[in-house]
From TrEMBL:
InterPro entries: TPR-like_helical_dom_sf (IPR011990)
Keywords: Signal
SUPFAM superfamilies: TPR-like
Leader sequence residues: 1-27
Organism name: Sphingomonas adhaesiva
Protein name per Swiss-Prot or TrEMBL: Tetratricopeptide repeat protein
Claim: Signal is one of the keywords in the record: yes
Amino acid sequence: MKSISNALMATLLASGATLLVAQPALAKKEEKPAAGAPALKLSNEVRGPAAQAQTALAAKDVATATPLVAAVEAAAKTDDEKYIAAALRLNVEAIRMDSGGTADALVAPLDALIANPRTPQADKARYVYQRGIIAANKKDNAGAAAFFEQARQLGNNDPNLPLQIVKLKMDGGDTAGGLAELTKMVDAQTAAGQKPSEDIYRYAIAKTNQKKMNAETMAWIRRYLAAYPTMKNWRDMVVFWGIQPQSVVTLDKQQKIDLYRLLRLGKSLADQYDYEIYAQWATDVGLPWESKTILTEGKAAGKVPADSANATGLLTAANRFISNEGSLSSLETKAKAAANGKLAAGTADAYLGSDQYAKAVELYRVALQKGGVDADTVNTRLGIALARSGDKEGAKAAFQAVKTPPRSDIAAWWIDFLDHPPVG
């Protein structure tokens, strides 16, 4: 767990400890304490130096405050007096942390305040939480876990507490427990009308991926994109899941092309590399129509430079192949007369790649009716063609017919895309 800095620790502590007992309540025995502060009964031996110490601490004059606090500690006999002694000592050590002091010096006054029956519960919950941070920074995971859980039971509502518990479990190897806590935290924030930060989702995605928990990784990706469906996030997550080297799942070029088709529809193809690798893979699997379409589109968008040698070579190859292949209409006629659906599926792919979606839909359905094809692949492509033609419900039905991973996962990506399309 990342250590909390001395300066931040001092600020956190001082925010709860500084002037815990209002100065007038110490200076004049008959005055009432400030709202929320305990009504303390102090002897004259404690009251005088305590009031002077508070004045010095308000000015961050540690040199003056230190002997006064020592005098209070020496004279303290009752719980009230020990409470003010520990509170003042905590203030001294918190201020010292700004000039190089260590968190170890905070342990004794924190423990004294936690144990003292005069400490208000809200303050006690805060002090227990800070003890958890100190323990976590010292790599005492068991101690930190106990303190954080105690802080939660005492009603600590620090927004960082749930995440501290999550990180502690994760770093301790309890990934399942950490994920359960994280889910609880995200669900609670969502129910309260709050939007969990993007970092929370990315943390869960990274941790589950490290443990090769593919189903959990995908689940957190889906939650992330539902909450933050930007074009950048869509591209980042699609590439992370199935396109980049060492992605969450291993896909072949045909399957990766179906993810690139999703990015294209979402206007999330980022740069020259995206357009050219997409076109290269389309060429590799025998889809020159799509290669040509993508490169032409990339050039028009200014993403593919006009002088790109790679793009020029791919376009030349695509045009040559298309010329040799003949018209798609002649292939369509042959496909409809064929004994099985293989030619129909291949011709539908060509229509899909050349943005002729109605023709693609027709021939994908012919392919499914004739058989002899991989139904999951054809249904995936049918869903894509329907999505591109604007038939959202028809597309979902086609995607839902895809049953076997990883194609069923690709279909799930498309369904999520239809429900939460990229924005911004």
